[in-house]
């Protein structure tokens, strides 16, 4: 392996790592938004006076 191949390998690995980290950040951001929206839905359903279903009960 010569220096050119090593340099290209390092560039490729850093690019792949950068892409992986940005994708992970996007997934985590979307997950937080989904959880927040789900909690808003639960709160609005409870505010309407709907009796709690089995899914609404806390799990022990």
Strand residue percentage: under 5%
Q: Could you name the ranges where pLDDT drops below 50 across 5 or more consecutive residues?
A: none
Distance between the termini: 58 Å
Alpha plus pi helix count: 1
The average pLDDT value, as a whole number, equals 87
What percent of residues adopt helix (DSSP H or I)?
over 70%
**What's the shape?**
rod-shaped
Beta-strand segment tally:
0
Structural class, please?
mainly alpha
List the helices and strands and how they pair.
Blueprint: H1 3-47
Brief sketch in words of this structure:
With 60 residues, the chain is mainly α. 75% of the residues lie in helices and 0% in strands.
Walk me through this protein's architecture.
The chain has a domain at 20-49. The N and C termini lie far apart (58 Å). Helices cover 75% and strands 0% of the residues. It is rod-shaped. It contains 1 helix and no strands. It is mainly α and 60 residues long.
List keywords for this structure.
mainly alpha; 1 helix; 75% helix; 60 residues
């Amino acid at each position: 392996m010569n220096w050119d191949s090593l340099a290209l390998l390092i560039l490729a690995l850093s690019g792949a790592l950068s892409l992986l980290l940005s994708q992970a950040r996007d997934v985590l951001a979307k997950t937080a938004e989904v959880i927040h929206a789900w909690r808003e839905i639960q709160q609005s359903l409870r505010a309407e006076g709907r009796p709690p279903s089995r899914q609404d009960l806390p799990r022990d």
